Structure of MmcQ/YjbR family DNA-binding protein:
Amino acid sequence: MGVTVDEFLKMLGDLPEVKLSDSDSWIALKVRGKGFGYLWERTETVGLKATIEEQIALVAERPDVFEVQFTTGRFGWVVVHLAKIDREELFELVTEAWCLTAPKQLVTAHESRR
């Protein structure tokens, strides 16, 4: 169990048009200029966009793995501790965050290839 930062970065290659944008403290994850996540390498955590319902459920179910990051509009961002999650579950959450952000045509094209 657990995903390294390098493994996380590699999994992003499975999603179309993901761009990484570095800052001093984090790496922003974007699709067509819109953010769907953040990576903090120093703490080995990822912040991902989710629905508010999903955010609440994840944190309630496993507070050792997930934390509330913030909410904005109809979205609840969740912090994921990479060392405490398996690859498949993390990829599912990253894909969902990407789908919540990417244009519908891009999501449809991606889903039809899977």
User: Anything to note?
Assistant: Helices lie at 5-11, 52-61, 87-101, 104-113. The CA atoms of residues 27 and 106 lie 23 Å apart.
